[in-house]
Amino acid sequence: MYVRFFYGLIAVAVLGGYLAVQFLKGFRLKEVIAFVLAFAVSSLLIGMLIYGDIRLVVKYFTVNMQLSYGNGVDMTLDIENHRFAFICSFIVLGCFIIYGIRKHRLFLIPLAVTWLLLFKLGFGRADHYVTYFVVPCAFIMLLISFEKGYLTKGLFFVSFFSLYYLGTHPAYNNSQRLALAFTTFNIPSLSNPFKLPFNNDETYEERMVQAYSQYKLDKTFLGKIGTDSVDVYPYNNEYMYANQLNYKPRPLFQNYMTLTPVLDQANSDYLRGAGKPKKIIWNSGLGCGDADCDSFIGLDNKFILNEDPLTSMAIFENYKVSEFTHGRNSEPLLLLTSRDQTLAADFVTRKNERMQFGVWYPLPQAKNSIVKVFPDFKISLVGKIKNFLFRGDIVKVRYKLKSGLQKEYRLNIINSHSGVWASPLLDGFDENGFTGEDVTDIMFETDSSYYFEPEFDAKIATSAVPLIHYQRRKIKYNDPVTVSPSVSVKDIDCDGSIDLLTEPAITDDVITPLVLKGWLAKSTGQGTLFDAIYVSLTDKNQHHRFVASSKNSRGDLIAVFGKPDLENAGFTANVDTSGLHGDYTVSLSGRTGDQIFVCRNLQRPLTLK
Questions:
Q1: DSSP three-state, residue 602
Q2: Count of structural domains, the chain
Q3: Whose CA is closest to 59, among 274, 237, 256, 266?
Q4: Which end of the chain has the least Cβ crowding within 10 Å, N or C?
Q5: Residue 430's CATH number
Protein backbone atom coordinates (compact mmCIF):
# COMPACT_ATOMS: atom_id res chain seq x y z
CA MET A 1 0.00 0.00 0.00
CA TYR A 2 2.79 2.41 0.95
CA VAL A 3 4.79 1.73 -2.22
CA ARG A 4 1.70 2.26 -4.39
CA PHE A 5 1.10 5.52 -2.58
CA PHE A 6 4.69 6.64 -3.16
CA TYR A 7 4.57 5.86 -6.87
CA GLY A 8 1.29 7.76 -7.04
CA LEU A 9 3.07 10.65 -5.36
CA ILE A 10 5.78 10.45 -8.03
CA ALA A 11 3.13 10.64 -10.75
CA VAL A 12 1.58 13.72 -9.14
CA ALA A 13 5.01 15.34 -8.73
CA VAL A 14 5.94 14.65 -12.36
CA LEU A 15 2.69 16.09 -13.69
CA GLY A 16 2.99 18.98 -11.27
CA GLY A 17 6.52 19.67 -12.51
CA TYR A 18 5.32 19.60 -16.09
CA LEU A 19 2.59 22.12 -15.25
CA ALA A 20 5.14 24.27 -13.44
CA VAL A 21 7.21 24.48 -16.62
CA GLN A 22 4.09 25.32 -18.59
CA PHE A 23 3.32 28.00 -16.02
CA LEU A 24 6.75 29.55 -16.59
CA LYS A 25 6.11 29.64 -20.34
CA GLY A 26 2.77 31.29 -19.94
CA PHE A 27 0.19 31.44 -17.18
CA ARG A 28 -2.73 29.12 -17.91
CA LEU A 29 -5.03 29.10 -14.94
CA LYS A 30 -7.47 26.70 -16.59
CA GLU A 31 -4.86 23.94 -16.85
CA VAL A 32 -3.85 24.30 -13.20
CA ILE A 33 -7.47 24.23 -12.03
CA ALA A 34 -8.25 21.29 -14.30
CA PHE A 35 -5.25 19.33 -12.97
CA VAL A 36 -6.14 19.97 -9.32
CA LEU A 37 -9.80 19.11 -9.83
CA ALA A 38 -9.02 16.02 -11.91
CA PHE A 39 -6.60 14.75 -9.26
CA ALA A 40 -9.02 15.36 -6.40
CA VAL A 41 -12.05 13.87 -8.14
CA SER A 42 -10.22 10.83 -9.55
CA SER A 43 -8.58 10.10 -6.18
CA LEU A 44 -11.96 10.31 -4.47
CA LEU A 45 -13.74 8.12 -7.03
CA ILE A 46 -11.04 5.44 -7.16
CA GLY A 47 -10.78 5.51 -3.38
CA MET A 48 -14.54 5.05 -3.03
CA LEU A 49 -14.46 2.13 -5.48
CA ILE A 50 -11.78 0.43 -3.38
CA TYR A 51 -12.87 1.30 0.16
CA GLY A 52 -16.52 2.31 -0.20
CA ASP A 53 -16.23 4.84 2.64
CA ILE A 54 -15.02 8.43 2.40
CA ARG A 55 -13.53 8.19 5.89
CA LEU A 56 -11.34 5.28 4.82
CA VAL A 57 -10.17 7.23 1.77
CA VAL A 58 -9.10 10.13 4.00
CA LYS A 59 -7.47 7.63 6.37
CA TYR A 60 -5.55 6.11 3.45
CA PHE A 61 -3.94 9.45 2.64
CA THR A 62 -3.32 10.31 6.30
CA VAL A 63 -1.68 6.98 7.15
CA ASN A 64 0.53 6.94 4.06
CA MET A 65 1.68 10.52 4.50
CA GLN A 66 2.65 9.64 8.08
CA LEU A 67 4.42 6.49 6.88
CA SER A 68 6.30 8.51 4.26
CA TYR A 69 7.45 10.98 6.90
CA GLY A 70 8.39 8.30 9.42
CA ASN A 71 10.19 6.12 6.88
CA GLY A 72 12.41 8.99 5.81
CA VAL A 73 13.50 9.77 9.37
CA ASP A 74 13.50 6.55 11.38
CA MET A 75 13.30 3.52 9.05
CA THR A 76 16.97 3.88 8.20
CA LEU A 77 19.94 1.55 8.51
CA ASP A 78 22.96 2.37 10.63
CA ILE A 79 25.31 2.27 7.64
CA GLU A 80 27.31 4.54 5.37
CA ASN A 81 26.96 4.27 1.61
CA HIS A 82 30.14 3.89 -0.41
CA ARG A 83 31.12 6.96 -2.40
CA PHE A 84 30.72 5.22 -5.76
CA ALA A 85 26.98 4.80 -5.06
CA PHE A 86 26.50 8.56 -5.02
CA ILE A 87 28.75 9.06 -8.05
CA CYS A 88 26.74 6.55 -10.10
CA SER A 89 23.45 8.07 -8.93
CA PHE A 90 24.46 11.60 -9.84
CA ILE A 91 25.75 10.46 -13.24
CA VAL A 92 22.18 9.31 -13.93
CA LEU A 93 20.87 12.70 -12.78
CA GLY A 94 23.34 14.35 -15.14
CA CYS A 95 22.00 12.25 -18.02
CA PHE A 96 18.45 13.30 -17.12
CA ILE A 97 19.45 16.97 -17.06
CA ILE A 98 21.37 16.82 -20.36
CA TYR A 99 18.44 15.11 -22.03
CA GLY A 100 16.04 17.72 -20.69
CA ILE A 101 18.17 20.67 -21.78
CA ARG A 102 19.14 19.33 -25.20
CA LYS A 103 15.98 17.49 -26.21
CA HIS A 104 12.83 18.40 -24.25
CA ARG A 105 13.04 21.26 -21.81
CA LEU A 106 9.48 20.59 -20.70
CA PHE A 107 10.76 17.30 -19.27
CA LEU A 108 13.65 18.81 -17.31
CA ILE A 109 11.83 19.49 -14.04
CA PRO A 110 9.71 16.29 -14.16
CA LEU A 111 12.83 14.18 -14.71
CA ALA A 112 14.72 15.95 -11.92
CA VAL A 113 11.78 15.54 -9.53
CA THR A 114 11.45 11.86 -10.46
CA TRP A 115 15.16 11.26 -9.82
CA LEU A 116 14.96 13.03 -6.45
CA LEU A 117 11.97 10.99 -5.28
CA LEU A 118 13.46 7.70 -6.48
CA PHE A 119 16.78 8.59 -4.84
CA LYS A 120 15.05 9.24 -1.52
CA LEU A 121 12.88 6.12 -1.80
CA GLY A 122 15.82 3.91 -2.74
CA PHE A 123 18.53 5.25 -0.45
CA GLY A 124 16.36 6.41 2.44
CA ARG A 125 16.19 2.88 3.85
CA ALA A 126 19.44 2.04 1.97
CA ASP A 127 18.53 -1.61 1.32
CA HIS A 128 15.85 -0.60 -1.20
CA TYR A 129 18.15 1.09 -3.70
CA VAL A 130 18.16 -1.69 -6.32
CA THR A 131 14.37 -2.06 -6.48
CA TYR A 132 13.33 1.56 -6.06
CA PHE A 133 16.19 3.46 -7.71
CA VAL A 134 18.26 1.32 -10.08
CA VAL A 135 15.38 -0.47 -11.83
CA PRO A 136 13.03 2.55 -12.32
CA CYS A 137 15.87 4.79 -13.54
CA ALA A 138 17.00 2.10 -15.97
CA PHE A 139 13.46 1.83 -17.31
CA ILE A 140 13.24 5.62 -17.81
CA MET A 141 16.56 5.69 -19.68
CA LEU A 142 15.43 2.75 -21.80
CA LEU A 143 12.38 4.73 -22.91
CA ILE A 144 14.58 7.74 -23.68
CA SER A 145 16.91 5.58 -25.81
CA PHE A 146 14.14 4.95 -28.36
CA GLU A 147 14.33 8.59 -29.43
CA LYS A 148 16.42 9.15 -32.54
CA GLY A 149 19.88 10.62 -32.32
CA TYR A 150 23.34 9.75 -31.06
CA LEU A 151 22.89 11.88 -27.94
CA THR A 152 20.06 9.78 -26.51
CA LYS A 153 21.93 6.56 -27.32
CA GLY A 154 25.05 7.89 -25.62
CA LEU A 155 23.09 9.00 -22.55
CA PHE A 156 21.49 5.57 -22.36
CA PHE A 157 24.82 3.72 -22.41
CA VAL A 158 26.41 6.05 -19.84
CA SER A 159 23.47 5.77 -17.46
CA PHE A 160 23.07 2.03 -18.13
CA PHE A 161 26.64 1.20 -17.14
CA SER A 162 26.39 3.47 -14.09
CA LEU A 163 23.19 1.78 -12.96
CA TYR A 164 24.52 -1.69 -13.78
CA TYR A 165 27.66 -1.05 -11.74
CA LEU A 166 25.56 0.37 -8.89
CA GLY A 167 23.22 -2.59 -8.93
CA THR A 168 25.85 -5.33 -9.11
CA HIS A 169 28.19 -3.90 -6.45
CA PRO A 170 27.34 -3.45 -2.75
CA ALA A 171 26.45 0.18 -2.05
CA TYR A 172 27.35 -0.42 1.60
CA ASN A 173 28.92 -3.27 3.54
CA ASN A 174 27.01 -6.56 3.07
CA SER A 175 24.26 -4.96 0.98
CA GLN A 176 22.19 -6.97 -1.46
CA ARG A 177 23.10 -6.81 -5.12
CA LEU A 178 21.29 -7.16 -8.41
CA ALA A 179 21.78 -10.65 -9.82
CA LEU A 180 23.64 -10.69 -13.13
CA ALA A 181 21.34 -11.06 -16.10
CA PHE A 182 21.02 -14.40 -17.89
CA THR A 183 22.95 -16.38 -15.27
CA THR A 184 20.01 -18.71 -14.65
CA PHE A 185 17.11 -19.90 -16.76
CA ASN A 186 13.87 -21.04 -15.18
CA ILE A 187 11.63 -22.70 -17.76
CA PRO A 188 8.16 -23.36 -16.36
CA SER A 189 6.43 -26.66 -17.02
CA LEU A 190 3.74 -26.38 -19.70
CA SER A 191 2.15 -29.78 -19.01
CA ASN A 192 -0.66 -28.10 -17.06
CA PRO A 193 -0.39 -24.30 -17.21
CA PHE A 194 -3.71 -23.91 -15.36
CA LYS A 195 -2.62 -25.88 -12.28
CA LEU A 196 -2.92 -23.80 -9.12
CA PRO A 197 0.11 -23.54 -6.78
CA PHE A 198 -2.06 -24.80 -3.90
CA ASN A 199 -4.72 -27.42 -3.21
CA ASN A 200 -7.98 -25.89 -4.35
CA ASP A 201 -9.97 -28.36 -2.22
CA GLU A 202 -8.68 -26.69 0.95
CA THR A 203 -10.09 -23.47 2.36
CA TYR A 204 -7.95 -20.39 2.79
CA GLU A 205 -7.92 -20.93 6.57
CA GLU A 206 -6.70 -24.52 6.15
CA ARG A 207 -3.91 -23.42 3.82
CA MET A 208 -2.78 -20.80 6.35
CA VAL A 209 -2.61 -23.43 9.09
CA GLN A 210 -0.26 -25.48 6.91
CA ALA A 211 1.82 -22.52 5.74
CA TYR A 212 2.44 -21.32 9.31
CA SER A 213 2.63 -24.69 11.05
CA GLN A 214 5.79 -23.63 12.94
CA TYR A 215 3.65 -21.05 14.76
CA LYS A 216 1.35 -23.65 16.31
CA LEU A 217 0.79 -23.10 20.06
CA ASP A 218 0.18 -25.66 22.80
CA LYS A 219 -3.36 -26.64 23.76
CA THR A 220 -3.19 -25.26 27.30
CA PHE A 221 -2.26 -21.81 26.04
CA LEU A 222 -4.93 -21.92 23.34
CA GLY A 223 -7.48 -23.03 25.90
CA LYS A 224 -6.87 -19.81 27.83
CA ILE A 225 -7.78 -17.85 24.68
CA GLY A 226 -10.75 -19.90 23.53
CA THR A 227 -13.01 -17.95 21.21
CA ASP A 228 -12.12 -14.56 22.70
CA SER A 229 -10.99 -11.79 20.36
CA VAL A 230 -7.20 -11.53 20.31
CA ASP A 231 -4.45 -9.35 18.86
CA VAL A 232 -0.70 -10.02 18.68
CA TYR A 233 2.11 -7.67 19.70
CA PRO A 234 4.54 -6.57 18.42
CA TYR A 235 3.92 -8.02 14.94
CA ASN A 236 3.90 -11.79 14.27
CA ASN A 237 0.28 -12.32 13.22
CA GLU A 238 1.22 -15.73 11.80
CA TYR A 239 0.19 -17.05 15.23
CA MET A 240 -3.35 -15.91 14.48
CA TYR A 241 -3.64 -17.89 11.25
CA ALA A 242 -1.72 -20.97 12.41
CA ASN A 243 -4.07 -21.41 15.37
CA GLN A 244 -7.29 -20.11 13.72
CA LEU A 245 -7.84 -17.55 16.44
CA ASN A 246 -10.46 -14.81 16.57
CA TYR A 247 -8.03 -12.20 15.24
CA LYS A 248 -8.94 -8.59 15.92
CA PRO A 249 -5.97 -6.48 14.79
CA ARG A 250 -5.23 -2.91 15.80
CA PRO A 251 -5.08 -0.31 12.97
CA LEU A 252 -1.33 -0.81 12.37
CA PHE A 253 -0.41 -4.34 13.41
CA GLN A 254 3.39 -3.99 12.93
CA ASN A 255 4.84 -1.98 15.78
CA TYR A 256 8.02 -1.12 13.85
CA MET A 257 5.88 0.70 11.26
CA THR A 258 4.11 2.79 13.91
CA LEU A 259 6.56 5.55 13.10
CA THR A 260 4.84 8.76 14.18
CA PRO A 261 2.73 9.92 17.15
CA VAL A 262 -0.33 10.09 14.86
CA LEU A 263 -0.02 6.40 13.93
CA ASP A 264 0.93 5.47 17.49
CA GLN A 265 -2.08 7.33 18.88
CA ALA A 266 -4.42 5.46 16.51
CA ASN A 267 -3.30 2.14 17.98
CA SER A 268 -3.42 3.51 21.51
CA ASP A 269 -6.98 4.78 21.09
CA TYR A 270 -8.05 1.41 19.71
CA LEU A 271 -6.59 -0.49 22.68
CA ARG A 272 -8.28 1.89 25.09
CA GLY A 273 -11.66 1.77 23.35
CA ALA A 274 -14.72 -0.39 23.93
CA GLY A 275 -13.96 -2.53 20.86
CA LYS A 276 -10.47 -3.60 21.95
CA PRO A 277 -9.62 -7.33 21.89
CA LYS A 278 -10.04 -9.33 25.09
CA LYS A 279 -6.61 -10.93 24.80
CA ILE A 280 -3.19 -10.05 23.41
CA ILE A 281 -0.41 -12.50 22.57
CA TRP A 282 2.91 -10.77 23.26
CA ASN A 283 5.66 -12.57 21.36
CA SER A 284 9.38 -11.89 21.41
CA GLY A 285 11.12 -9.46 19.09
CA LEU A 286 12.29 -10.00 15.54
CA GLY A 287 15.78 -11.10 16.55
CA CYS A 288 14.62 -13.86 18.90
CA GLY A 289 15.71 -17.33 17.82
CA ASP A 290 15.63 -19.39 21.01
CA ALA A 291 14.22 -19.64 24.52
CA ASP A 292 17.04 -17.55 26.03
CA CYS A 293 16.78 -14.54 23.72
CA ASP A 294 16.21 -10.92 24.70
CA SER A 295 12.49 -10.61 23.97
CA PHE A 296 12.61 -6.82 23.66
CA ILE A 297 15.10 -6.38 20.82
CA GLY A 298 13.23 -5.34 17.69
CA LEU A 299 14.03 -4.40 14.12
CA ASP A 300 17.37 -2.58 13.61
CA ASN A 301 18.38 -3.26 17.23
CA LYS A 302 15.66 -1.00 18.63
CA PHE A 303 14.13 -1.50 22.07
CA ILE A 304 10.56 -2.57 21.33
CA LEU A 305 8.92 -0.36 23.97
CA ASN A 306 10.52 2.73 22.40
CA GLU A 307 9.17 2.05 18.90
CA ASP A 308 5.53 2.73 19.74
CA PRO A 309 5.50 4.24 23.27
CA LEU A 310 1.82 5.21 23.26
CA THR A 311 0.67 1.78 22.11
CA SER A 312 2.86 -0.13 24.57
CA MET A 313 1.64 2.05 27.46
CA ALA A 314 -1.97 1.42 26.41
CA ILE A 315 -1.23 -2.31 26.66
CA PHE A 316 0.26 -2.03 30.15
CA GLU A 317 -2.63 0.12 31.35
CA ASN A 318 -5.39 -2.08 29.92
CA TYR A 319 -4.01 -5.64 30.07
CA LYS A 320 -2.38 -7.94 32.62
CA VAL A 321 -0.26 -11.09 32.30
CA SER A 322 -2.24 -14.34 32.53
CA GLU A 323 -0.21 -17.12 30.85
CA PHE A 324 3.27 -18.04 29.57
CA THR A 325 4.43 -20.47 26.88
CA HIS A 326 6.95 -20.94 24.07
CA GLY A 327 6.26 -20.46 20.38
CA ARG A 328 8.17 -20.75 17.13
CA ASN A 329 11.88 -21.51 17.67
CA SER A 330 11.05 -21.81 21.39
CA GLU A 331 10.62 -18.05 21.66
CA PRO A 332 8.96 -16.94 24.95
CA LEU A 333 5.34 -15.76 24.71
CA LEU A 334 2.96 -14.09 27.13
CA LEU A 335 -0.81 -14.02 27.06
CA LEU A 336 -2.31 -10.77 28.30
CA THR A 337 -5.93 -10.46 29.42
CA SER A 338 -7.96 -7.26 29.47
CA ARG A 339 -8.21 -5.60 32.89
CA ASP A 340 -11.62 -4.99 34.42
CA GLN A 341 -10.72 -1.30 34.65
CA THR A 342 -7.99 0.79 33.05
CA LEU A 343 -5.05 1.32 35.40
CA ALA A 344 -3.76 4.73 34.32
CA ALA A 345 -0.01 5.34 34.61
CA ASP A 346 -0.45 9.05 35.48
CA PHE A 347 3.19 9.98 34.96
CA VAL A 348 4.53 12.45 37.52
CA THR A 349 7.42 14.73 36.56
CA ARG A 350 10.37 14.12 38.85
CA LYS A 351 12.94 16.33 37.20
CA ASN A 352 13.50 18.68 34.26
CA GLU A 353 16.93 18.49 32.65
CA ARG A 354 18.86 20.44 30.05
CA MET A 355 20.59 17.51 28.35
CA GLN A 356 23.47 17.01 25.95
CA PHE A 357 24.38 14.04 23.80
CA GLY A 358 27.07 11.77 25.21
CA VAL A 359 26.43 12.62 28.88
CA TRP A 360 25.12 10.26 31.57
CA TYR A 361 22.07 11.41 33.55
CA PRO A 362 20.90 9.69 36.77
CA LEU A 363 17.40 8.27 37.01
CA PRO A 364 15.09 8.14 40.04
CA GLN A 365 14.77 4.69 41.60
CA ALA A 366 11.14 3.58 41.82
CA LYS A 367 10.60 -0.18 42.17
CA ASN A 368 7.81 -1.52 39.92
CA SER A 369 7.11 1.99 38.64
CA ILE A 370 7.95 2.90 35.06
CA VAL A 371 10.52 5.64 34.53
CA LYS A 372 10.40 7.53 31.25
CA VAL A 373 12.42 10.35 29.73
CA PHE A 374 10.66 12.79 27.41
CA PRO A 375 13.41 14.39 25.27
CA ASP A 376 12.64 17.34 23.04
CA PHE A 377 15.18 16.71 20.29
CA LYS A 378 15.68 19.73 18.05
CA ILE A 379 16.57 18.88 14.45
CA SER A 380 18.69 21.58 12.83
CA LEU A 381 17.86 23.23 9.51
CA VAL A 382 20.53 21.10 7.82
CA GLY A 383 19.02 18.02 9.43
CA LYS A 384 15.55 18.89 8.14
CA ILE A 385 16.91 19.33 4.62
CA LYS A 386 18.66 15.95 4.95
CA ASN A 387 15.36 14.37 6.04
CA PHE A 388 13.59 15.86 3.03
CA LEU A 389 16.18 14.96 0.40
CA PHE A 390 17.85 11.85 1.77
CA ARG A 391 17.29 10.21 5.18
CA GLY A 392 17.47 10.84 8.90
CA ASP A 393 20.46 10.27 11.16
CA ILE A 394 20.98 7.72 13.92
CA VAL A 395 20.25 8.30 17.60
CA LYS A 396 21.05 5.72 20.25
CA VAL A 397 20.06 5.39 23.87
CA ARG A 398 22.47 3.77 26.33
CA TYR A 399 21.40 2.28 29.65
CA LYS A 400 23.61 1.77 32.71
CA LEU A 401 22.08 -1.04 34.75
CA LYS A 402 22.22 -1.46 38.49
CA SER A 403 24.58 -4.40 38.01
CA GLY A 404 27.03 -2.19 36.12
CA LEU A 405 26.23 -3.64 32.71
CA GLN A 406 25.55 -1.24 29.85
CA LYS A 407 23.18 -1.82 26.93
CA GLU A 408 22.65 0.29 23.83
CA TYR A 409 19.75 0.45 21.38
CA ARG A 410 18.70 2.44 18.33
CA LEU A 411 16.04 5.04 19.05
CA ASN A 412 13.18 6.35 16.93
CA ILE A 413 13.62 10.12 16.72
CA ILE A 414 10.01 11.11 16.04
CA ASN A 415 8.29 8.89 18.61
CA SER A 416 10.86 9.69 21.30
CA HIS A 417 8.86 12.84 22.05
CA SER A 418 6.12 10.54 23.38
CA GLY A 419 8.51 9.13 25.97
CA VAL A 420 11.67 7.01 25.98
CA TRP A 421 11.45 3.95 28.22
CA ALA A 422 14.16 4.39 30.84
CA SER A 423 13.62 1.90 33.68
CA PRO A 424 13.28 -0.97 34.30
CA LEU A 425 15.04 -2.31 31.22
CA LEU A 426 12.97 -5.38 30.40
CA ASP A 427 14.71 -8.25 28.63
CA GLY A 428 12.40 -11.26 28.63
CA PHE A 429 9.35 -13.25 29.72
CA ASP A 430 8.95 -16.11 32.17
CA GLU A 431 6.24 -17.89 34.15
CA ASN A 432 5.90 -14.88 36.46
CA GLY A 433 5.63 -12.27 33.70
CA PHE A 434 8.51 -9.98 32.79
CA THR A 435 12.22 -10.12 33.52
CA GLY A 436 14.45 -7.06 33.65
CA GLU A 437 16.70 -4.87 35.73
CA ASP A 438 16.60 -1.38 37.20
CA VAL A 439 18.50 1.34 35.34
CA THR A 440 20.59 3.88 37.24
CA ASP A 441 21.68 6.21 34.40
CA ILE A 442 20.73 6.98 30.82
CA MET A 443 22.58 8.59 27.89
CA PHE A 444 21.56 9.69 24.40
CA GLU A 445 24.18 9.45 21.65
CA THR A 446 24.57 10.54 18.05
CA ASP A 447 27.53 10.49 15.67
CA SER A 448 26.34 13.55 13.78
CA SER A 449 27.66 17.01 14.59
CA TYR A 450 25.10 18.88 12.47
CA TYR A 451 21.81 16.94 12.44
CA PHE A 452 20.65 17.96 15.94
CA GLU A 453 20.99 21.01 18.09
CA PRO A 454 23.66 20.08 20.67
CA GLU A 455 21.38 20.61 23.70
CA PHE A 456 17.77 19.74 24.33
CA ASP A 457 15.24 19.89 27.15
CA ALA A 458 14.05 16.65 28.72
CA LYS A 459 11.54 15.67 31.36
CA ILE A 460 12.10 12.66 33.63
CA ALA A 461 8.87 11.17 34.96
CA THR A 462 7.67 8.09 36.85
CA SER A 463 4.33 6.31 36.78
CA ALA A 464 2.16 6.97 39.82
CA VAL A 465 1.07 3.31 40.04
CA PRO A 466 3.02 0.05 39.61
CA LEU A 467 1.92 -1.27 36.20
CA ILE A 468 4.42 -4.11 35.84
CA HIS A 469 6.05 -6.69 38.05
CA TYR A 470 9.44 -8.04 37.05
CA GLN A 471 12.43 -9.89 38.38
CA ARG A 472 16.01 -10.32 37.26
CA ARG A 473 16.50 -12.93 34.59
CA LYS A 474 18.15 -16.12 35.79
CA ILE A 475 21.73 -16.13 34.62
CA LYS A 476 22.76 -18.98 32.33
CA TYR A 477 26.48 -19.52 32.60
CA ASN A 478 28.64 -21.13 29.96
CA ASP A 479 29.98 -24.51 31.03
CA PRO A 480 33.54 -24.91 32.33
CA VAL A 481 35.79 -27.15 30.22
CA THR A 482 37.62 -30.08 31.73
CA VAL A 483 40.97 -30.52 29.99
CA SER A 484 42.55 -33.96 30.02
CA PRO A 485 46.31 -34.34 30.59
CA SER A 486 46.77 -35.39 26.96
CA VAL A 487 45.76 -31.93 25.73
CA SER A 488 48.65 -29.51 25.23
CA VAL A 489 48.38 -25.79 26.03
CA LYS A 490 50.48 -23.24 24.16
CA ASP A 491 50.66 -19.42 24.11
CA ILE A 492 50.46 -17.77 20.67
CA ASP A 493 49.49 -14.48 19.02
CA CYS A 494 45.93 -14.73 17.68
CA ASP A 495 43.67 -13.09 15.13
CA GLY A 496 40.77 -11.90 17.25
CA SER A 497 39.35 -9.29 19.56
CA ILE A 498 37.62 -8.94 22.92
CA ASP A 499 35.09 -6.31 21.93
CA LEU A 500 33.32 -6.25 25.29
CA LEU A 501 34.43 -7.29 28.76
CA THR A 502 32.13 -6.55 31.66
CA GLU A 503 33.56 -7.42 35.06
CA PRO A 504 31.36 -9.41 37.45
CA ALA A 505 29.43 -7.67 40.21
CA ILE A 506 28.42 -9.19 43.52
CA THR A 507 26.29 -7.12 45.90
CA ASP A 508 23.51 -7.86 48.35
CA ASP A 509 20.84 -8.07 45.63
CA VAL A 510 22.79 -8.33 42.36
CA ILE A 511 25.08 -11.06 41.05
CA THR A 512 26.32 -10.79 37.48
CA PRO A 513 28.77 -12.93 35.49
CA LEU A 514 31.97 -12.02 33.76
CA VAL A 515 30.64 -11.18 30.28
CA LEU A 516 32.74 -11.29 27.13
CA LYS A 517 31.88 -10.69 23.50
CA GLY A 518 34.17 -10.67 20.50
CA TRP A 519 35.64 -12.94 17.84
CA LEU A 520 38.52 -15.33 17.28
CA ALA A 521 39.84 -16.94 14.11
CA LYS A 522 42.62 -19.39 13.43
CA SER A 523 43.61 -17.30 10.41
CA THR A 524 41.82 -14.29 8.98
CA GLY A 525 43.96 -14.48 5.85
CA GLN A 526 42.84 -18.02 5.08
CA GLY A 527 39.41 -17.66 6.67
CA THR A 528 39.87 -20.67 8.96
CA LEU A 529 38.44 -21.21 12.45
CA PHE A 530 39.30 -23.13 15.59
CA ASP A 531 37.22 -26.15 16.53
CA ALA A 532 36.09 -24.29 19.66
CA ILE A 533 36.56 -20.90 21.31
CA TYR A 534 37.22 -20.79 25.06
CA VAL A 535 37.54 -18.01 27.60
CA SER A 536 40.64 -18.59 29.70
CA LEU A 537 41.24 -17.40 33.27
CA THR A 538 44.87 -17.67 34.32
CA ASP A 539 45.96 -17.14 37.93
CA LYS A 540 49.37 -15.95 39.17
CA ASN A 541 50.60 -19.57 39.26
CA GLN A 542 49.84 -19.90 35.52
CA HIS A 543 47.00 -22.31 36.18
CA HIS A 544 44.44 -22.11 33.38
CA ARG A 545 40.66 -22.36 33.73
CA PHE A 546 38.78 -22.72 30.46
CA VAL A 547 35.11 -21.89 29.87
CA ALA A 548 33.16 -22.69 26.71
CA SER A 549 31.56 -19.91 24.67
CA SER A 550 28.39 -19.48 22.62
CA LYS A 551 28.39 -18.72 18.92
CA ASN A 552 27.54 -15.20 17.78
CA SER A 553 27.12 -14.39 14.09
CA ARG A 554 29.59 -11.75 12.81
CA GLY A 555 28.71 -10.84 9.25
CA ASP A 556 30.85 -7.71 9.58
CA LEU A 557 34.00 -9.85 9.53
CA ILE A 558 33.12 -11.03 6.02
CA ALA A 559 33.09 -7.43 4.83
CA VAL A 560 36.45 -6.71 6.46
CA PHE A 561 38.39 -9.87 5.55
CA GLY A 562 36.38 -11.22 2.61
CA LYS A 563 36.15 -14.76 4.02
CA PRO A 564 32.61 -16.21 4.37
CA ASP A 565 33.51 -18.69 7.15
CA LEU A 566 34.49 -15.83 9.45
CA GLU A 567 30.80 -15.17 10.07
CA ASN A 568 31.06 -18.01 12.62
CA ALA A 569 34.09 -16.51 14.37
CA GLY A 570 31.99 -14.51 16.83
CA PHE A 571 31.35 -15.57 20.42
CA THR A 572 29.68 -14.56 23.67
CA ALA A 573 30.31 -15.96 27.13
CA ASN A 574 28.89 -15.67 30.64
CA VAL A 575 31.56 -16.87 33.07
CA ASP A 576 30.76 -17.85 36.66
CA THR A 577 33.52 -16.39 38.85
CA SER A 578 31.94 -17.17 42.22
CA GLY A 579 34.50 -18.72 44.54
CA LEU A 580 37.42 -17.09 42.73
CA HIS A 581 39.49 -14.39 44.40
CA GLY A 582 42.68 -12.56 43.55
CA ASP A 583 44.41 -11.43 40.39
CA TYR A 584 43.72 -13.18 37.10
CA THR A 585 44.39 -12.71 33.43
CA VAL A 586 41.46 -13.05 31.04
CA SER A 587 42.12 -14.10 27.47
CA LEU A 588 40.71 -16.09 24.58
CA SER A 589 41.78 -19.56 23.60
CA GLY A 590 41.22 -21.63 20.50
CA ARG A 591 41.11 -25.40 20.44
CA THR A 592 42.09 -27.59 17.52
CA GLY A 593 42.06 -31.31 18.23
CA ASP A 594 44.20 -32.00 21.32
CA GLN A 595 45.79 -28.56 21.32
CA ILE A 596 44.60 -25.39 23.06
CA PHE A 597 46.17 -22.10 22.01
CA VAL A 598 45.99 -19.27 24.57
CA CYS A 599 46.06 -15.82 22.97
CA ARG A 600 48.80 -13.87 24.73
CA ASN A 601 48.09 -10.74 22.68
CA LEU A 602 44.47 -10.55 23.87
CA GLN A 603 45.08 -10.69 27.62
CA ARG A 604 43.17 -8.46 30.05
CA PRO A 605 43.91 -8.10 33.80
CA LEU A 606 41.07 -8.95 36.20
CA THR A 607 40.90 -8.67 39.98
CA LEU A 608 38.21 -10.73 41.71
CA LYS A 609 37.25 -9.81 45.25
A1: helix
A2: 4
A3: 266
A4: C
A5: 2.60.120
